[in-house]
From TrEMBL:
Its EC number is 2.7.13.3. Pfam families: HATPase_c, HisKA. Gene3D superfamilies: 1.10.287.130, Histidine kinase-like ATPase, C-terminal domain, PAS domain. GO terms for molecular function: kinase activity. This is histidine kinase. It is an enzyme of class 2 (transferase).
């Protein structure tokens, strides 16, 4: 029965990670010892053990137990291995009399292997890069790790001969602080190799059984942190300088267009006039129509998480200015944290230069087709002169015949007038405003100007238009200019082929297509010329790239055309196969209810 109780108790306490021993003080027998204690004490035969085989100063232990039968605190003690080596431990004991007969003196003793953990701890501390020491309450060194010894060039064998104040040069008030309470302050340490190092000194009064028993002190190297702070500050200064030299304004807003942050840039003129403030609606400076447009762009950017750009005109200090806003989603780890970076740019000068480039491209196109138009004008002019000569030299009495001659003269002059008007319209400065225009109107006007040049080069020119075409909201002169430029490119490609096509042809067309529930008007220019190789195709939209450098090619036509179409919310593509021809497709949003 007695043994079964011992076994049952040991099973109940077997989960403990500490050493566990049941001792009978009367018989001085070890009734039970767990595997952890057996392993630590290297016991070979645990079944026949006397108490004095394990505990040093057993009589003193018995006296302590009798004085405090139910110990709630841990007492320092020594155990011994079979080779008589002493192991410092702390023990906690409690009586098991309630489980056995009242006249027994059986105690459960739990063992904390504090020396084992202390050795592990010191080994870890020794390898720390943080200088660390332990002292008594008077500041006498008891332990110093390797980093501390190296830093202060101490003799490892004489650690206990130093005081903390021998090593650290400190003012008197700080010396008293360290000895009395936990402290934290900065000190400079001179080092022959590393020069002066800034440390944060932290000291702690260590406690044992509720009483101070020593001081632990460590030094945190702040030099790397200070270097990092300097690097960050330098980066911030460089970034601030970079922003200050840019003609841009930066604002971060939320989904409701409320300003969250503003870049501290005062060079950007618009921000000085608008005087944006954190927390206000950034679009409240605009009229309702523009505000609605900007909110639509903001909603689209938040929903699709893609960047978008829009423009607006503003009368600033009496001068008409054009500004661009780039909406850029700020990607965060939290998908619900929707923030948008707005980049404001003054593009007034850029737009002016774009206009100049477009005008340059326009007059280059006029030069390309002028010779053909001169020939086209000369034919009806010669016919009209012949008919006039008949009227002057022949006295035609028949009124019907006379009327027919005058009609022919009128027809020839109307043809001349239309050609000249088309040429003048092409050279005229276009309106900066967009209008809803029939794409067929643009097709006809373009055809009148280019078909003459095609005839002169013996190129068959045809055109086609799909039914029920909706209008497009554009600056129509610019779209006409893009189409003329594409046709002129086809004319040059066909007329400059080393082996001429037997039946060269160009077709200009318009169709309506629907892509992802959105309708597009698609202009196309297709030829059966030499086509474009892959290497050239990758570069055709780059500014100043041309394959006609020795033939006065500027390399601006397609790059400007792409910019014009992009400003109208469209796209331009080239489909080609080398040796068989090329097709340019220009997509523009149809002005329909479906497209909003």
């Amino acid at each position: 029965m007695f043994n079964s109780k011992i076994e049952r108790l040991s099973q109940l306490l077997s989960h403990s990670q500490k050493g566990l021993v049941f001792v009978d003080l009367k018989s001085k027998q070890i009734l039970y010892i767990n595997s952890i204690a057996i392993e630590q004490l290297e016991i070979k035969n645990p079944k026949s053990l006397q108490v004095e085989n394990i505990f040093c100063d057993f009589d003193l232990l018995v006296s302590e137990i009798h004085t405090h039968p139910q110990s709630k605190s841990e007492y320092k003690w020594f155990l011994k291995k079979l080779n008589s080596e002493k192991i410092p431990v702390s023990v906690h004991y409690s009586s098991l009399t309630d489980f056995f007969d009242s006249d027994t003196e059986i105690y459960a003793i739990t063992i904390n292997w504090n020396q084992m953990h202390s050795e592990d701890h010191l080994e870890i501390v020794d390898h720390l890069e943080i200088p660390f020491i332990q002292t008594d309450l008077a500041g006498n060194l008891q332990y110093a790790n390797n980093r501390f010894i190296e830093l202060f060039r101490l003799s490892p064998n004489k650690i206990e001969s130093y005081t903390i104040f021998d090593v650290l040069i400190l003012p008197e008030n700080l010396k008293n602080e360290i000895l009395k309470r936990n402290t934290k302050f900065l000190i400079e340490v001179d080092h022959s190799v590393e020069n002066s190092i800034t440390f944060q000194l932290q000291s702690f009064i260590t406690m044992q059984e509720g009483k101070p028993n020593g001081i632990s002190l460590l030094l945190l190297d702040l030099s790397e942190l200070q270097n990092a702070e300097r690097i960050i500050k330098y980066g911030e200064d460089k970034l601030r300088t970079f922003f200050a030299t840019m003609n841009n304004g930066f604002v971060i807003i939320n989904k409701d267009a409320q300003i969250l942050e503003i870049a501290p840039i005062f060079k950007f003129l618009l921000f000085q006039v608008f005087a944006f403030e954190v927390g206000e609606d950034i679009f409240h400076f605009f009229d309702e129509k523009m505000k609605s447009k900007l909110m639509e762009v903001l909603s689209s950017v938040i929903e699709n998480q893609n960047s978008q750009t829009t423009e607006f005109d503003y009368l600033l200090l009496g001068e008409e200015k054009t500004f661009e806003i780039r909406f850029i989603p700020v990607r965060r780890y939290d998908p619900n944290d929707k923030k948008i970076l707005l980049v404001f740019s003054d593009i007034t000068e850029a737009k002016r230069k774009d206009r100049q480039l477009i005008e340059s491209m326009k007059f280059a196109s006029i030069g390309e087709i002028a010779a053909g138009l001169a020939h086209e004008i000369n034919n009806p002019l010669q016919s009209a002169l012949l008919y006039l000569d008949d009227l002057i030299t022949v006295d035609e009495a028949d009124q019907n015949e006379r009327r027919n001659i005058l009609k022919k003269i009128e027809s020839a002059n109307l043809r001349i007038r239309d050609l000249v008007k088309a040429l003048l319209d092409l050279g005229r400065m276009e309106s900066p405003n967009r209008d809803i225009v029939s794409p067929y109107y643009i097709l006809v006007r373009t055809s009148e100007l280019v078909e003459v040049s095609c005839r002169k080069k013996n190129i068959s020119f045809t055109r086609h238009a799909g039914p029920n075409l909706p209008g497009i909201f554009v600056r129509w002169q610019e779209i006409e200019q893009v189409l003329i430029n594409c046709v002129v490119n086809s004319i040059n490609a066909l007329s400059e082929m080393e082996t001429a096509r037997q039946f060269p042809k160009i077709e200009l067309g318009i169709d309506l297509v629907k892509i992802q529930k959105k309708e597009w008007v698609v202009f196309s220019v297709e030829d059966n010329g030499p086509g474009i190789d892959d290497d050239t195709l990758e570069k055709v939209f780059l500014p100043l790239f041309t394959t006609r450098r020795n033939k006065q090619g500027t390399g601006l036509g397609l790059s400007i055309s792409k910019k014009i179409i992009a400003e109208h919310g469209g796209e331009i593509y080239i489909k080609t196969k080398e040796g068989t021809g090329a097709k340019v497709e220009i997509y523009l949003p149809a002005h329909t209810d479906e497209n909003g």
